Amino acid sequence: MTLSPYPGNPQGDTVRGVKSRNVTACIVAAAIVIAAFTGCASATSSLRQATTDARSAAESAQLALTQQRDDRSFLTTTQTALGDSLTELGAAEQSAAEVAPSSAAETAQQKSALRAIRAATDAVLAAQRAVADDAGSAVPAVRTAATALTRLADRLERAEKAK
User: Fold this and answer.
1) Residue 110 · residue 92 · CB < 8 Å
2) Residues 6+ apart with CB under 8 A from 15
3) What is the mean pLDDT of residues 144-157?
4) Taking the model in full, what pTM does it have?
5) Which of 1, 8, 53, 80 has the highest count of CB atoms within 10 angstroms of its CB?
6) Cβ contacts of residue 126 below 8 Å, gap of 6+?
7) pLDDT-based confidence at 27, cuts 50/70/90?
8) What H or E segment, with its residue span, contains residue 138?
9) 104-115 in b/e burial notation, b at 16+ Cβ within 10 A?
10) What sign does the dihedral 115-121-122-123 (CA atoms) show?
11) Each residue's pLDDT tens digit, 35-94
12) Cα separation of 67 and 79, whole Å?
């Protein structure tokens, strides 16, 4: 007779099979729970986050342009900041575009977010082209885009809280 860690079952085969099935079932259940929780963010919340990220990028571009205009920054530093802002705006646009709206209101929010993010991207692109000649001329357009993104982010936050 062999000693088994499973009382009442000298070979332990059946119990081992049950044990491995239980472990597998637990792993599958945990994966399902994790997937469910990672998908819990509402469309409004995701759009607010994308809009907030875009606003931050636009404000960074505005700061870089203001510093350049006031002769407090090197041109290469400003160009790098504008390039980084464009990268962040692209990521924010992608995040907003990937949202799957579940209602007409969320679809309208997504369209507004994408429109505002694209306007900010256009303003930063224009600033990037103008920065070598006159950084100050690009500040108003970027400021306007950042302000529009701020208003939209605030509106999305209110909509999120109303749910």
Assistant:
1) no
2) 6, 9
3) 91
4) 0.71
5) 53
6) 138, 141
7) low
8) none
9) eebeebbebbbe
10) positive
11) 444 445 789 999 999 999 999 999 999 999 999 889 999 999 999 999 999 999 999 999
12) 12
